[in-house]
Amino acid sequence: MQKSMKRYFPIFVLPTLIAFIIAFLYPFIMGIYLSFTEFTTVKDATWVGLSNYKKIFLDQNFINALVFTVKFTVVSVVTINVFGFLLAYILTRGIKGTNLFRTVFFMPNLIGGIVLGYVWQLLLNGILAGFGVTLSFDAKYGFMGLVLLMNWQLIGYMMIIYIAGLQNVPGELVEAAKIDGATKMQTLFRIYIPMVMPSITICLFLTLTNSFKLYDQNLALTAGGPGRQTAMLAMDIFTTFYGRVGWEGVGQAKAVVFFLMVAVISLTQLYLTRRKEVES
Q1: Which of 74-78, 181-185, 202-206, 239-243 has the lowest mean pLDDT?
Q2: Which site among 103, 108, 175, 190 is 20 to 30 Å from 114 CA-CA?
Q3: Distance, CA of 232 to CA of 73 (rounded, Å)
Q4: Contact between 149 and 117 (Cβ < 8 Å)
Q5: Which are the contacts of 274, defined by CB distance < 8 A and separation ≥ 6?
Q6: Is CATH 3.40.50.1820 the right assignment for the domain spanning 58-279?
Q7: Would you place residue 239 in the very low, low, confident or very high pLDDT band (cuts 50, 70, 90)?
Q8: pLDDT confidence bin for 275, thresholds 50/70/90
């Protein structure tokens, strides 16, 4: 049976492999090549070497977007995971209506990002109007709005993952801790958190990558205003590529730098948190 499966394995894999090459691998390699060229279409690309990459770090809009994105990501990753874990911890304590609460908290994740952004724009601008300002009045309002939106959308999703991890914590460990006189806080930090490190690894990875790649909510909520002060990296790349004539190559170079940055940060996070899993 195993030999028969191995014999026909290439036949079954071939369609998926072809689709992967056409839809992902070829465009990815082509994108890297185009980042070293000046072009308006793929056929008229002219090699310019590292010129596009030099322009990136001389572009103040890119630097502003990078700083804003890093700040947003740090705040979002911390708040989403802290509140997601706390909700999961509370909802695994056997309180009434647990299933209803889980469903309600998870529902925001089902709403599309662009729709969610416009809904929150109306809501937050309605509240801020009472103070004579809007989300685009100052970058700090846009920043807080984006953080609130991101938290509201993702906390419930992370909560579900943390609940799965908490439910797999052996009851004997918790009972043993109680017998030894451990307080609830000691049990939380010495038993529960080390035992749910696999869930923490997944949640950190998801919140980290989603925060860095945020575009549709950014577009709907602030559109980068005021003066592109709340434009994140994905929006800056899009604006450069489609909004500046002759800068298509620079936009492509920004996309390559963006990919490398997210990949390095994500892989580093996975490496560090997986080491904690092994230790625990």
Answers
A1: 181-185
A2: 103
A3: 10
A4: yes
A5: 201
A6: no
A7: very high
A8: confident
Q: What is the pTM of this model?
A: 0.91
Domain assignments of the chain as residue spans, ordered by start: 2-34, 58-279
Instruction: Write out pLDDT tens, residues 86-102.
Output: 999 999 988 888 888 88
Per-residue HEC secondary structure of the chain comes to CHHHHHHHHHHHHHHHHHHHHHHHHHHHHHHHHHCCEECCCHHHCEECCCHHHHHHCCCHHHHHHHHHHHHHHHHHHHHHHHHHHHHHHHCCCCCCCHHHHHHHHHHHHHCCHHHHHHHHHHHHHHHHHHHCCCCCCCHHHHHHHHHHHHHHHHHHHHHHHHHHHHHCCCHHHHHHHHHCCCCHHHHHHHHHHHHCHHHHHHHHHHHHHHHHCCCHHHHHHCCCCCCCCCCCHHHHHHHHHHHCCCCHHHHHHHHHHHHHHHHHHHHHHHHHHHHHHHHC
Q: Are 139 and 230 in contact (CB under 8 A)?
A: yes
Placement of tokens 């996975």 in the chain: 270
End-to-end C-alpha distance for the chain, whole angstroms = 40
